[in-house]
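#help-structures
NK: newbie question, is this the right format to request a structure? protein is Putative 3-hydroxyacyl-CoA dehydrogenase
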Amino acid sequence: MSEIRKAAVIGAGVMGAGIAAHIANAGVEVLLLDIVPEGATNRSAIAEKAVERLLKAEPAAFMSKRSAKLVKAGNIEDDLPALAECDWIVEAVVERLDVKQALYRKIDAVRKPGTAVSSNTSTIPLAALTEGLSDGFRRDFLITHFFNPPRYMRLLEIVSGPETDPATVARVSAFADVKLGKTVVTCKDTPGFIANRLGTYWMQLAVGEAFALGLTVEEADSVMGRPFGIPKTGVFGLLDLVGLDLMPHVQGSLERALPKDDPFQKTVRDIPLIRTMIETGLIGRKGKGGFYRLN
Ligand code: NAD
């Protein structure tokens, strides 16, 4: 079984940057790539800024200064050929099927056969992600769904398809278990897998009900945090951490994928305040703040 000696993470946002840092914590060199910002003189500015943020992250994303040196920032245009040197490519770009599929075509054109490619999608089924892609790509493709923050959240959901090579799944699962310290849960290829199918459901309901009951964010989180077995952030704090902008993507993706008579369709509804917050840039910790103000 070939080892993972070099990896790439594409998408240097909340998740991609954190995943890259944690792969580096395992002593593996990682290329962290993002798009070329329009009109920018520095073509790798997005990934470089992400590395700067990682160095200041609280709690710390890197285990040591040595790990930090293993993350190389770049961009998906100039550094695309370098994907041919990688043994594992993690896609962590925006939660949009069209964007992800266009990227897979580019990756498939340069990767060496047998290189594992995985998506960090929260909700998009593997069957949809791989539709129309080459047989070779489908053999090497799986979903590795990390949670935020990737260094600290132990759960990793893994989804494979009927065409995924079991050796690829075994290689990535073993690396995640032994090197990344993850508890790997194998999920069926169902909308939202396990965590987001159940998680989005209760989070949306909890937020809606908290407003309906006139509770403050602090009152709701004081109960819906540790006392409930949820991280100390509570529900609103967790939304700030995840990024409020992700919620409509996750909700929309589940609405499209689930049957019309599924309870999710009747119970989970748009929360106007969340829409307004997204429109004004209050998307949580990665923006100007969210339910909680940034200091
Ligand atoms: P984000 O918006 O913070 O970052 C996405 C990054 O991808 C951006 O920097 C963007 O410039 C980049 N990007 C977009 N198109 C690209 C392309 N074609 N090539 C290269 N880079 C591109 O998003 P995020 O919250 O990190 O989410 C990324 C993925 O992880 C999504 O699929 C999301 O559903 C999933 N996810 C998110 C969380 C979370 O807590 N935020 C948790 C688990 C899974």
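mod (FA): yep, format's fine, and the tokens are attached above. The first helix runs from residue 14 to 25.
NK: thank you!
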